[in-house]
Design a protein that fits this description.
By secondary structure, the chain is mainly alpha-helical. About 65% of the residues lie in helices and about 5% in strands. It has two domains: about 1-55; about 55-104, no CATH class. It has helices at about 1-15, 20-45, 55-80, 80-85, 95-100; strands at about 85-90, 95.
Length: about 100
């Protein structure tokens, strides 16, 4: 239900929007499609009678894969700069003020 709604909204607004970018549309639509695929895969794993798995175990097994995929996409799209700003290479330690800027 979300994909036609989001896609229709983009198609109505794309011509007069200054901040429109094709990568944003592709990202939004593919996020909806992949989220639906993930939900279907989870439902199949949870309802499998041969290999019964509970939701906490499913989260335990899926979380590392999700982290690595999102980390790889983040490095490809944003580069190393966001990660390098957390670590002070001269002092050899994590910079706490870059993690929590309002609480220093």
């Amino acid at each position: 239900m979300q994909v036609p709604l989001i896609s229709g909204g983009f198609l109505l607004c794309w011509q007069h929007e200054q901040n429109y970018h094709v990568l944003g549309v592709v990202g939004a639509v593919s996020a909806s499609v992949f989220r639906a695929g993930k939900s279907v895969a989870q439902e199949l794993l949870l309802s499998n009678q041969k290999r019964k798995i509970d939701s906490a175990s499913l989260l335990y097994f899926m979380a590392p894969y999700s982290m690595f995929v999102l980390l790889a996409l983040s490095i490809v799209l944003e580069g190393w700069q966001p990660y390098a700003s957390f670590y002070d290479f001269e002092a050899g330690q994590v910079q706490c003020d870059s993690i929590t800027p309002g609480f220093s």
